Fold this sequence. Notes:
This protein is of the alpha/beta class and 217 residues long. It contains six helices and 15 strands. A seven-stranded mixed β-sheet has the order 1-2-3-4-5-6-7, with helices on one face. A six-stranded mixed β-sheet has the order 8-9-10-11-14-15. Strand 10 and strand 11 (148-153) form a beta hairpin. The mean pLDDT is 98.
Amino acid sequence: xxxxxxxxxxxxRVSVSDMANNVYLVTNRKSGEQLLIDAADDMPAxxxxxxxxxxxxxxxxxxxxxxxxxxxxxxxxxxxxVAKYPVPxxxxxxxxxxxxxxxxxxxSTPLAHGDQLQLGDVVITAIHLRGxxxxxMAYALTDSSGQEVIFSGDSLFPGGVGNTWKDPxxxxxxxxxxxxxxxxxxxxxxxxxxxxxxxxTVGTERPHLGDWRERGW
Length: 217
């Protein structure tokens, strides 16, 4: 998926770097307000992504940059993005220090579980998923068409949860959070847009939760 056009929002994606990091741009089609999710790398590609959305609204303009988690491969272009677009920045409270260490950007708006970002009349909710990093956040919205979309960072992928480096406590924490805060809250049709690679749906992954817990990763 490089483009998803819904009633309220347009979602565009570009894959950057040799790690295939996904950078997402969400545009409110009515107000033109935009949120960039994960300025991972390759600032020219990010600028092209923003430029590609000029037709998604009458007056598109970036109003925020959200980061899913502190790992270096997700913040390599964050300092450049903030310099070019001096807008509020968002990330999980427990990853703010790590982001500052990785790229010298001080997040302006630390987030807790359940905090909301307003993109015009569209609400984007922060979902704290503990385990891949202490402050990993997914970002979720529900379009007026009924379509739910979850930007899951590196906490949920097709086929399993994110890397917890064979730490049983971290794995259990992440799988518990993903189960309770995503699979028990969203419908099977909810789209999951991860930090790397292809998208999936909650319904596609739901039958495998027990298998993931049994295998331990």
